Amino acid sequence: MAGSTEMASLEESFRKFAIYGDTKATGQEMNGKNWAKLCKDCKVTDGKSVTSTDVDIVFSKVKGKTARVINYEEFKKALEELAPKRFKDKSKEEAYEAICQLVAGKEPINVGVTKAKKVGAVERLTDTSKYTGSHKERFDESGKGKGKSGRENIVDTSGYVSAYKNAGTYDAKVKK
């Protein structure tokens, strides 16, 4: 079988894929979705000899009858099941070694993460240089929002009506 360092990295890969996408996961058990992701990311599935259907069937075969997850021992059994299908030209032991090397040391890949893109109307509506009136006051010259200071009405506590020409002159008149 594989060396102890390879088994440690295989177990590490199992744990990384087991906790992927689940904040409450402990890394002791892996669900079917993460098993399928592991097989896809580590190139165990090749679309010809091993398909996603094969991966699902093997998962169902190795897990307990009512269980929804597999542990590390069942994970190794699942790899043993897939190994002869993936590497047809090798013996059972060599195929298991080869499939362990595919999985060992790998991590989940975040491919195809959706990014928002501005097109057409969205671009026009989010262009702060075209804002007018009170909305214009909410952004600085670079188009970055001013935050609360841009939204909040700053209260004038001087005691004068806004836009009064002689504001601040009362004290000077009274002292004469």
From TrEMBL:
Looking up Pfam families in the UniProt record yields:
p25-alpha
GO cellular component, as recorded? microtubule
Its family remark reads: Belongs to the TPPP family.
InterPro entries, per database record: EF-hand-dom_pair, TPP/p25
Protein name (record): Tubulin polymerization-promoting protein family member 3
The main place the protein resides is cytoplasm
The organism is Ciconia maguari
Give a GO molecular function annotation for the protein: tubulin binding
Q: Which UniProt keywords apply?
A: Cytoplasm, Cytoskeleton, Microtubule
Superkingdom, taxonomy of origin: Eukaryota
On whether Transport is a keyword of this UniProt record, the answer is no
Q: Which GO terms describe its biological process?
A: microtubule bundle formation; microtubule polymerization; positive regulation of protein polymerization
Q: Where in the cell is it found?
A: Cytoplasm, Cytoskeleton
Does the record's keyword annotation contain ATP-binding?
no
What the entry lists under SUPFAM superfamilies is as follows: EF-hand (SSF47473)
The record's region (Disordered) falls at 130-153
Q: Where is the composition biased (Basic and acidic residues)?
A: 134-153
